[in-house]
Amino acid sequence: MAQWDRLRQLPSAYRQQLHELYDRDALPMDVRHYLAPWIEKQEWQRAARDDAFAMVLFQVLLENLDIQHSRFVQEESFLLQHNIRRYKQNFQRYVDDPCALATTILWFLEKEKEILESAELAEKVQLLQVEPEAMETSSQQDLERKLAGLRNEVQCMEHTIICLEEQQDEFDFKYQTHKLEAVVDEARKNEQIRALQLLVNKLNDCRKSTLSGLNNILDRTQDIIDVLVKKELVEWQRRQQKACIGAPDNVCLDQLEKWFSCVAVCLFQVWEFLTKLEELVGKVSYENDPVKAQNPTLQKRVDTLLRDLLKSSFVVETQPSMPQGKGSLVLRTNVQFSVKARLLVKFPELNHSMKVDVSMDKEAPQIKGYRRFNVLGTKIKALNMAESTNGGMVADFRHLTLKEQKSGGGGKGVSDISLSVTEELHIIYFNTVFELKGFSVELQASTLPVVIISNSSQQQSAWASVLWFNMLSQDPKDVMFFANTPAATWPQFGEMLSWQFLSATKRGLDGTQLEMIANKLFGKKPNYDSCTVPWSKFTKENTPDTFWVWFDGILMMVKTYLEDLWRDGLIMGFVTKGKEKSLLKKKKRGTFLLRFSESVIGGITFSWVEITVTGEPDVKTVQPFTKVDLSQIPFHEIIRNFQILEAENVPENPLLYLYPDTPKDEAFGKYYSEKSGEDSPYIKYIKTKLVFVSKENTLEARSPMPSDMAQGEGLEPMNGLCGEAAEQDGDLYPLTPPLESYDPDPMMNGSVVDPEPPQDLLMYLNNPNLFDNDLLQDDQSLPDFSLQGFNCLLPQSCGSFP
C-alpha cells in the first residue's frame, strides 16, 4: 500500500500529527495528496545532491500541477483551481535552487515514515498487552540534564580560555614594556614590579582555575560516557538482540547518535582548550607553572575518554540478513546478504573519508570440524550520510557473500567438542580508522553471531539456534554458546514464542494460548514460572517432529494462509482437546472453534457441538486442513461452505456460532468471496471435499459432481469426520456407500470390500490400541491421527459419531 494511503488510514491521533506536519507552506497537503503516487516514486535523495536531476523533477512537478489545474477546471472546482495555481507560483522560488525543493520533499517523506513507525510500534505494544514505555525514561531525562550541563560548562570554559588569553596578553605587554623602559626612579620601578607580580599571581590563579574547571569537565564527561557505554548502549544491544527474534523493541539509533556526538564534540573542544593552553605556556611561563605540570595528564585523560567513546560508537545497525531468509543472522553460502555498520559520532567533515573493511572470524575457536569462511563481494565501503535515511554515518554493504574455505575437513583443532552445522556460530567484523584534528584511533564493530548454512533445508534448524542464542545469551561474542547450552525459563520461552507470532502476523500469543503450550511441554501445573525448557526439548527430542518443527509449521501456515483471521482473533489456535471439549459442551448447538492440530504439522481444524437425541452435547471434529487444502481454498470459505446432508433433507452447515457466541457470518463475512454457490471460484473443492451425508449415525462424503468427472480429475482425499474426529468420545463407523469399491487400506490386515461395515474394521476403529502409530491418552494430551489409507475410487467416505 502506498505510504500516503497508509497515513490516511491511521487512527485520529496520528492523522492529527499528519495535519500538524503539513500545517506549513513548504509542501501543501493538497499537492502531497493529488500527486502522491508520483511523489513517492521519485528519487528525492538523489535529487537533493544532483542539481541537474533536481531540475528535471522540478519541471515535472510544475507540469503535474498544470495537469491537476486543468482537471479542476473541467470539474469546475473553483477553490481547488485557485489553490493549485497559487501553489505553482510559490514553487517558482525554487527555480534557482531545485535541490532545496528536493531536500524539502525528502524531509516531509521521512517525517511521514516516523509517524507510521510510531503508529506501528503503538499497535505492537497494544497487541502484546503491555504498558507503552514513556518516550523518555527518568534515566534518559537525567542523562539529558547531564549533557546540557556539560555543554554549558564547555561554553563557559571557552569564555574562560578567552579571558585567560587576554589576561596573559595584558601581562606580557606590560612586562615587555617594563623591560624596554629604562626607569631610573627606584620607587617607580619597584611599583611596576609589584604591579607585574600582581598580574602574574592573577594569571597563575586563573590558570589554576582553568585547569580545575577542565578537570571537572572531564569528570562530568567520564560519568556521562559510563552511562552511555555501560548502560544505554548495552541496553540498545540487548534490544537489538531481542528485535532480531521478533520483539517489538525500539532499536533506532538516532538518540544514541545525538548523545555520543554531543560528548565527542565536547571532548574535542576540551582537546582544543588544552592545545591552546600549551600555546599560551609557550609564550609566557614561570616557575611552578600549573599548566606545565597538569596539562600532559589532562591531555592523556582526554585521549583516553575519546578513545573509549569512539571505540564504543562503532556499531552494527542492521544485522546480516538474506533477502529471502527466514530471519536475520541466518546466512547461506553463495547467497547475497546485506549488513549495515554505523558510527554514532557524527562529524560531517568525515563524510566519505573513513573506509570500512569487512572480515570474518578473527578469533575462531579451535574445535574439531569448525568451518571457516571468506567474505566475497564489495568488502570496502566508506562511511557516508547518503545511504542513511536519517543522515547517519553508515556503511551499507548490500552484496556480500560467504564461501567456505577448503581446509581438509575443517581442521583437527585442539578440542574434542563437536557442534552441528546449525550450532556453529560465526562473527563478521568491520574495521575502520577515525582521524580528526590530529587524533587517530582504530575502530572495530562486530555482528551478533550468525549461523551459516549450505542449503535451504537447514534454515528451520538454523533459525532455532538464532532464537535460542538471542533469547538467552548476554555475551554477543560467545561463539561457544552451544557447547554448553543453557535452558530457558518458561517466562523467557513463552515470550519468545509470542514474539514469533507478533513479528509474523502483528498479533502475539495471549496467556491462555501460552498456557496450552506450557501444558503440552510440562503437563498440567498450577504455575509454570519455575519450569525450564532445555535446548534438546526445543529442537532435538522426537526428531523429526520436534517441538520447534511443530510450532514453526503452525506459524508458517498462519503467516501464509490465515494471517487476517489470526490477527482479528478468530482463531483460538492453541487449546488442548480436553479444554476444547469442556468449552463447547457448555454452548448451544452449532458453536464451533478453530484450533491447531497437536500432531499434524501445520494443521488446523474446527470442532463444533451437536445435541444428541437424548439431549446430550456431542463435540465433533474434522480431520486437520493443511497447506494442501489452504492453497486451494481460503479457510474462511471452508467454514462458509462446510455442509452435512441429513438423510432426505437439504444440506446444512453445522457451524453456526464462533465461540463464544458470535454468528459465523458476522465473524467471517468480511472475508467471503463476492461470488457464492455455483459461481464460487472454489466450487470444485466445495463439491468434492466439503459435503457430507448423514445416514443412520454415519456420515458419507458425497460428490454432487458426475462420478466420471470426480474420478477422471484425480481428486485428492477429502477432509472429513475422520482423523482427529476419532479422538472424540463415541464409536467411529466406516462409511461404505452402496456400489462403491475400496482400495486396500495399508493400516489394516485386509481390504474393505463389503458394502456394510465389516466387524474387523469396526474393531480397529473402536479399539485405538490396535493402531500402529498412535495410542490415545486422556483428553488433556490426545494426539491427532488420520485414517490416511482409507481411500476410495470415488470421493472418500469418512466416519461420524453415533
Automatic annotation (TrEMBL):
GO terms for cellular component: cytoplasm; nucleus. Keywords: Activator, Coiled coil, Cytoplasm, DNA-binding, Nucleus, Phosphoprotein, SH2 domain, Transcription, Transcription regulation. Residues 566-672 form the SH2 domain. Transmembrane segments: none annotated. GO terms for molecular function: DNA binding; DNA-binding transcription factor activity. Its main location: cytoplasm. Pfam families: SH2, STAT_alpha, STAT_bind, STAT_int, STAT_linker. The gene is STAT2. Belongs to the transcription factor STAT family. This is Signal transducer and activator of transcription. Residues 140-167 form a coiled coil. GO terms for biological process: cytokine-mediated signaling pathway. SMART domains: STAT_int. It is found in: Cytoplasm; Nucleus.
